Amino acid sequence: MPTVASRPRVLPLLLVLLVATVALSGCARVRAALAVQPDDTVTGQVVVATPETGPDDPGPPIALPPDLESEVDVSEYQQDGYTGSILRFDGLTFPQMSELIAAAGPGGDAVRFEMRRAGSRVLVNGAVDLTTVAVDRADFQLKIGFPGQVLESNGDGDSSEVSWTFTPGEVGDFSAVVAYPDPGAPSPVNWTLGLFAVVALASGVVVLLARRTRNTPVSP
């Protein structure tokens, strides 16, 4: 089991991935486990670590845009000779992820991550450039669980979860298409109730007009 202790630092998922794959040299471990929620938010955790060089080695340094500092909890991580951070977060939106990529600056070209909704589908795609990362003791993994059915993907998994393992020295791409209801779309029940209300109102108006026409007095 990893050793976890409180550390007063916070950092969101995608910036961690960017720093780990771009700024770090040599060996590294980056393991991200995400769970997309029915309301189009993301919960999960990510491990970012490098081989420990000594008892006081804190692992890779990380930083965060100020407006996202309260979104992620960060603790120390030590396992299998690696040291670094384990990050836990809850309720990140798809736009926040895009913001994190933009905040990474030019180095963000090494990692491209996009998650967006298109009607009743959620599209995930991106790429990780590990051409400058050494093969020795390199461990890069991404796993995403979804609240609906995975229709297409180039990873490994089942109908609701997909995982990717990236190879150091190469550019790895990832993609998935998932189907689940748009939380912002009106529900069928609401549509039905609304239609019923409109029909009832129209029927009432017709009946009222018919009664007024039938009861109009005839002048002698």
Question: What order do the helices and strands come in, and which of them pair?
Answer:
Layout: E1 6-9, H1 13-23, E2 29-36, E3 41-51, E4 72-79, E5 82-93, H2 94-103, E6 111-118, E7 121-129, E8 139-145, E9 149-153, E10 156-157, E11 161-166, E12 171-179, H3 188-214
Q: Could you explain how this protein is built, in words?
A:
By secondary structure, the chain is of the alpha+beta class. It folds into 2 domains: 6-179, no CATH class; 186-220. It is 22% helix and 40% strand. It has an 8-stranded mixed beta sheet. A 4-stranded antiparallel beta sheet has the order 6-7-12-9. α1 (13-23) packs parallel to α2. The chain is elongated. 28% of the residues are buried. Mean pLDDT is 76; it is low at 3-13, 18-25 and 103-107.
Annotation keywords:
alpha+beta; 8-stranded mixed beta sheet; elongated
Q: Sketch the major β-sheet.
A: 8 strands, mixed
Rg of Cα set: 26 Å
Query: Could you state the order of secondary-structure elements as H and E?
Result: EHEEEEHEEEEEEEH
What is the SS-derived class? alpha+beta
Overall helicity: 10-25%
Count of alpha and pi helical runs? 3
Number of strands: 12
How far is it from the N-terminal to the C-terminal residue, by CA?
100 Å
Largest sheet: spatial strand order:
1-4-5-3-2-8-11-10
What's the rounded overall pLDDT mean?
76
Approximately what portion of the residues adopt beta-strand conformation? Answer: 35-45%
List segments where confidence is low: pLDDT < 50 over at least 5 consecutive residues. Answer: 3-13, 18-25, 103-107
Shape, principal axes of CA atoms: elongated
| Whole-number tally of structural domains | 2
